[in-house]
Amino acid sequence: MPEKKRVGIQAISEASQEVWWNGIHALFPTKGELSIDPPKEGGTEMDEDDQVFERFSDFMKEGGCKESFSALVDCLEDT
């Protein structure tokens, strides 16, 4: 693959990932960003992306896709 094309594809991929994460952060803010979620005392500090992914996972496990999402998580944990 020509270098110019590879660099272009990489730039598009990185931009898409940033847009995706920004959307996920907007839909599933960290617990500290929500006024209804009091901060937990004595809890372990999680990185912001981990907190957002945890909220996303909780949402997916409770929604209409819970069986598919659980199967995906199980598959990823097995690898």
TrEMBL record:
Xref: InterPro entries: GCK_dom
Every GCK domain range: 54-78
Family matches, as Pfam families: GCK (PF07802)
Protein name as annotated: GCK domain-containing protein
